[in-house]
Design a protein that fits this description.
binds NADP nicotinamide-adenine-dinucleotide phosphate; globular; alpha/beta; 6-stranded parallel sheet; 28% strand; Rossmann fold; Quinone Oxidoreductase, Chain A, domain 1; 338 residues; 7-stranded mixed sheet
């Protein structure tokens, strides 16, 4: 089968940073399904895993943590899917990735593809949606339906992949959403995703929020830079508020006052935790993707795809990584077809 892989960790402008390879088609056993991959998305995790370092892989390493495709074969323990089913999933960072014509994935972290989306649109969703959903509804104390009623939520990096779906999920849960964006294109996109207000994360946040009538916010999702906004969020969050984090800090975070004085809940989300540690509830990830497919098909959530490169090959994946590394992409970039 065709795949795109690396053996060395090189800058993306090096043509050897991601290369086209031929690999053996894997076989599904146990809870695994073998998926014929039709479309994949790229995420900052791909560029972080690929980041330059001296390490060399003995075997080609396949990246890619977002896919949509069709079930080809199933392992003997599989109960949720059968050959021919259309599916979407993020997968497991400890296993071979989705940048391959066929991929093994545990059925428990797979959802049925939304019927109203094509494969490219579906591939844009899983990783970011799992992240935003688990953060808001599993880690932070908000109920999926109406848990944000009467509350304000600041979403830092509203136009990014995670922000685009977080805004929609938060609006659906009833929050008043204040997103952050720094350019006209990203401001417009945040509004299209449903944000009630947009403030600029390149300017001090407090005065902009005050001008909109918010002395404090009830909750905040920092989806961009944990260290940079830590002090400001400590000031801006209301007593008994909650902050959600998804990005590894560069330095140490002071978790005492004002966070302690205000009893602010600090919540980490790592969307690979369930598959990586094979938690007893890992099936919740498949269930949430099914629920999201229903919400998409019912018109209550919309896709976040903004660009598609075709076919899925090393040259196009290098271009996709290059764009992601700029830190300025809007919504999701997908590669489709072989
Ligand atoms: N822990 C987890 O489970 C998990 C899951 C998914 C993602 N992540 C991490 O979360 C981060 C965001 O992921 P993503 O997919 O949403 O990224 P993304 O799509 O690449 O985000 C791009 C957006 O980020 C905004 N941005 C860039 N620098 C910023 C800054 N300093 N402050 C605020 N906004 C900024 C940009 O908006 P403007 O152009 O308007 O400035 C741009 O629209 C990445 O570090 C990723 O690795 C973690």
């Amino acid at each position: 089968m065709k795949a795109v892989a690396l053996t060395r960790y090189l800058p993306i402008d090096d043509p050897h940073s991601l290369v086209d390879v031929e690999l053996e088609k894997p076989t599904a056993t146990g809870h695994d399904i073998l998926v014929r991959v039709e479309a994949v998305s790229v995420n900052p995790v791909d560029t972080k895993v690929r980041s330059p370092k001296p390490q060399v892989e003995a075997q080609p390493k396949v990246l890619g943590y977002d896919a949509a495709g069709v079930v080809e074969t199933v392992g003997e323990a599989v109960t949720r899917f059968k050959p021919g089913d259309a599916v979407y999933y993020a997968g497991d960072i400890t296993r071979s990735g989705s940048n391959a014509q066929f991929q093994l994935v545990d059925e428990r972290i797979v959802g049925r593809k939304p019927a109203s989306l094509d494969f490219a649109q579906a591939a844009a969703l899983p990783l970011t949606t799992i992240t935003a959903w688990e953060l808001l509804f599993d880690r932070m104390p908000y109920a999926i339906d109406n848990g944000g009623e009467g509350k304000s939520l600041l979403v830092i990096a509203g136009a990014g992949g995670v922000g685009s779906i977080a805004i929609q999920l938060a609006k659906r849960a009833g929050f008043t959403v204040i997103a952050t964006a720094s350019r006209q294109d990203t401001i417009d996109w945040c509004k299209a995703m449903g944000a009630d207000h947009v403030v600029n994360h390149r300017e001090p946040l407090g005065p902009q929020l005050k001008a909109l009538g918010f002395d404090t916010v009830d909750a905040a999702l920092n989806l961009a830079d944990t260290d940079r906004y830590w002090t400001d969020l400590g000031e801006l969050l209301a007593p008994l508020g909650h902050v959600g984090l998804i990005v590894e800090p560069r330095g140490e975070l002071r978790i005492g006052d004002p966070y302690k004085a205000k009893s602010i809940g600090i919540h980490w989300e790592m969307m690979f935790a369930r598959p990586r540690f094979r938690t007893a509830d890992m099936g919740e990830q498949g269930a949430l993707l099914d629920r999201v497919a229903d919400l998409i098909d019912a018109g209550q959530l919309r896709g976040t795809l903004t660009g598609t490169l075709s076919p899925i090959n090393a040259a196009n994946l290098r271009e996709a990584h290059r764009r992601l590394e700029s830190g300025t992409t809007i919504g999701k970039l997908v590669l489709a077809g072989w």
